C-alpha cells in the first residue's frame, strides 16, 4: 500500500527535462495563449452551443457558460501554480504524481487519455458536419452512407437509434491530416495553429458584430424553459426536470455538457515542457486564454439563442445554420469556413496534448517506454504515440455520435480538475517551502471552491457517464497492476535500494 501512494520527488521531475529524452523548448507566451484559445474556441461555440441549448438549457445557456467558466477559473489558478512549479509534460498526471502518489497519478493519467482522445473524436465529428454544411452550399454532397456515425441517441425517445449510415469519412480524413502535421514538429504545428486561431477569431467577431442586428429579444423568452437546476446523483435527479431518457435538464445540466468546451487551458499545461520560459509563460497562457474565451462564449451563445428560437437550432452546425435561417446565406458560408478553421485548431491541440500524456507516463515506466516515450530523432516529437492517437481518434469519430462523445469527455475533464485542485491543498502541506513562481491566490478557498463546483457538475451528468468512467478506470487498473506497478521508475528504484545498488540505477531513473 505504501508503494502505491509513493510520490515522485520534485528534484527527479525537474531532472528529467535536463536529460536526452526530452522535448524541444520553442513555445513563447503568445504561442501558448494561442494553443489555449485554439483548444477552447471551436467546438464549444460552433457545435456544443446547439446541442446544449436545444436539449438542456434554452437561452439560459449564457448562464451555463458563466457557471462552467467559474469552475474553470478556480481550476485554472490551481493548474497555473503547478505548471510554474513543475514545467514538464504530463499536466495533471505529473502534478498528481508529485503530490498524491503513483496510483492516483495513474488514475488521472488514464483519465486524461480518455479526456483528450474522446474530445478529439468529438471535435473531428463537429468538423465533418461543418465541412458538409459548407460544401452543401455549392451543391456538393458527401455520400450519405459516409456522412455520419451509424447510430445516435434520440433525446425524444430516450434511446439509441440507427442513422442508416456506415461511418463519418470527413472526420477520418481531417484526423489523418492533422496527425501528419503533428508528427513533423511542434513549431510547425504551433504556427499552423496560430493561423487557424486568427481566422476563427475573425469569424467569431463577425458572428457577434453581424448577429447582434438580427437578435429578437422575444426568442429569449422563456429564458430558462428547462429551469435553472438539473442536478442528479448517479442518474437520479435531485433538482430540476428530467428528460425522456432520464437525463437531467436545466441550466446546471447544460453547464455539465458544455464544460467540454473549456478544456483548452489544460492543454497549455500539458505542453509546458516545450515552453521557453514555462514558469512565467504557462500561467500567462492559461489565464489569458480562459478569460478571452469565456467572454466570447457568453456573447456568442446570447446572440445565437436571440437570432433563432432554441428549439430550432441545428444540433451539428448551429452557428452557420442560424445565419442561414435569418436569410444571410453568404454569412453562412463564411462562418462554415471559419468554423472549420476553428475546429481544426481544436483538433490539433487535442491530438497534440494526448501523446504528451502517453510520453510522460511512459517516461515514468507506467507504459512501455520504447513505444510511447519514443522521440523522433529529427522532429523531436513523440511520433509513435501521436500516430496511435490519430488512429484511435479517427475510428471513434467515424463511428460514435456527438452526444455520447461530448458527455463522456466531460466527466473525465471534471475528474481531472477535482484532482488538481486537491493536489494544490496537499502540496501546500507537504512542500510548503517549494519555489512557486506563480501562487494560486486565496488558498484554501480557491481549490475547495473548484472541487465543489466540479463535483456538482459531475453529478449533473447522466448516470451512464459514471458507468462508462468506472468501466474505463477498471480497464486502467488492470493495466496498472498488470504492467505499470512492476515497471515504474519508482518501483525500479525501490528494488535497487533493496538490492543495495541504488547508486548504479540513479542515472537510469532520471532518463529511462
**Structure annotation, total helices:** 20
Radius of gyration using CA atoms only: 22 Å
What percent strand?
under 5%
Q: Superfamily at the CATH H level? A: Amino acid/polyamine transporter I
Report the helical percentage.
Answer: 55-70%
The tally of strands reads 6
CATH architecture grouping: Up-down Bundle
What can you tell me about this protein's structure?
There is one protein chain. With 512 residues, the protein is mainly alpha-helical. The chain has one domain (10-510): Amino acid/polyamine transporter I, CATH 1.20.1740. 67% of the residues lie in helices and 4% in strands. Helix 5 (92-99) packs parallel to helix 16 and helix 19 (489-498) packs antiparallel against helix 20 (502-510).
Features:
single chain; 512 residues; mainly alpha; Amino acid/polyamine transporter I; two-stranded antiparallel ribbon; two-stranded antiparallel sheet; 4% strand; globular; disordered C terminus
Amino acid at each position: 500500500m505504501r508503494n502505491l501512494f509513493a510520490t515522485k520527488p520534485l528534484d527527479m521531475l525537474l531532472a528529467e527535462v535536463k536529460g536526452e529524452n526530452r522535448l524541444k523548448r520553442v513555445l513563447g507566451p503568445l504561442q501558448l495563449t494561442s494553443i489555449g484559445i485554439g483548444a477552447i474556441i471551436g467546438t464549444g461555440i460552433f457545435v456544443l452551443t446547439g446541442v446544449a441549448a436545444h436539449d438542456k438549457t434554452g437561452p439560459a445557456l449564457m448562464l451555463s457558460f458563466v457557471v462552467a467558466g467559474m469552475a474553470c477559473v478556480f481550476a485554472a489558478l490551481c493548474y497555473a501554480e503547478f505548471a510554474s512549479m513543475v514545467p514538464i509534460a504530463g499536466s495533471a498526471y505529473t502534478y498528481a504524481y508529485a503530490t498524491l502518489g503513483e496510483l492516483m497519478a495513474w488514475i488521472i493519467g488514464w483519465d486524461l487519455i480518455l479526456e483528450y482522445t474522446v474530445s478529439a473524436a468529438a471535435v473531428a465529428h463537429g468538423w465533418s458536419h461543418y465541412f458538409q454544411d459548407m460544401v452543401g452550399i455549392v451543391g456538393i454532397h458527401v455520400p450519405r452512407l459516409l456522412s455520419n456515425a451509424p447510430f445516435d441517441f434520440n433525446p425524444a425517445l430516450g434511446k439509441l437509434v440507427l442513422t442508416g449510415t456506415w461511418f463519418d469519412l470527413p472526420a477520418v480524413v481531417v484526423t489523418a491530416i492533422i496527425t501528419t502535421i503533428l508528427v513533423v514538429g511542434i513549431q510547425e504545428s504551433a504556427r499552423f495553429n496560430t493561423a487557424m486561431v486568427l481566422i476563427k477569431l475573425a469569424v467569431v467577431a463577425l458572428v457577434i458584430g453581424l448577429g447582434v442586428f438580427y437578435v429578437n429579444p422575444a426568442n429569449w423568452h422563456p429564458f430558462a424553459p428547462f429551469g435553472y437546476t438539473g442536478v442528479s446523483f448517479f442518474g437520479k435527479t435531485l433538482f430540476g426536470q428530467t428528460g425522456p431518457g432520464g437525463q437531467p435538464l436545466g441550466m446546471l445540466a447544460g453547464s455539465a455538457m458544455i464544460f467540454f468546451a473549456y478544456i483548452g487551458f489544460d492543454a497549455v499545461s500539458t505542453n509546458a515542457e516545450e515552453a521557453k520560459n514555462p514558469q512565467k509563460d504557462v500561467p500567462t497562457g492559461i489565464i489569458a486564454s480562459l478569460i478571452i474565451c469565456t467572454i466570447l462564449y457568453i456573447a456568442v451563445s446570447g446572440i445565437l439563442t436571440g437570432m433563432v428560437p432554441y428549439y430550432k437550432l441545428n444540433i451539428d452546425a448551429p452557428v452557420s445554420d442560424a445565419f442561414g435561417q435569418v436569410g444571410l446565406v453568404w454569412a453562412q458560408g463564411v462562418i462554415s469556413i471559419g468554423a472549420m478553421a476553428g475546429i481544426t485548431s481544436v483538433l490539433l491541440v487535442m491530438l497534440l496534448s494526448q501523446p504528451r500524456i502517453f510520453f510522460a507516463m511512459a517516461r515514468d515506466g507506467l507504459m512501455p517506454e520504447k513505444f510511447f516515450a519514443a522521440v523522433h530523432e529529427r522532429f523531436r516529437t513523440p511520433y509513435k504515440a501521436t500516430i496511435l492517437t490519430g488512429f484511435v481518434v479517427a475510428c471513434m469519430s467515424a463511428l460514435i455520435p456527438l452526444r455520447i462523445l461530448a458527455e463522456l469527455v466531460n466527466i473525465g475533464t471534471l475528474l481531472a480538475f477535482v484532482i488538481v485542485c486537491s493536489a494544490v491543498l496537499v502540496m501546500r502541506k507537504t512542500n510548503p517551502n517549494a519555489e512557486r513562481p506563480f501562487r494560486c491566490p486565496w488558498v484554501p478557498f480557491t481549490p475547495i471552491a473548484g472541487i465543489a463546483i466540479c463535483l456538482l457538475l459531475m453529478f449533473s451528468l447522466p448516470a451512464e457517464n459514471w458507468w462508462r468512467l468506472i468501466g474505463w478506470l477498471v480497464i486502467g487498473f488492470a493495466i496498472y497492476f498488470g504492467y505499470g506497478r512492476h515497471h515504474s521508475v519508482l518501483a525500479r528504484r525501490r528494488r535497487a535500494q533493496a538490492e543495495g545498488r541504488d547508486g548504479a540505477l540513479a542515472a537510469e531513473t532520471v532518463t529511462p
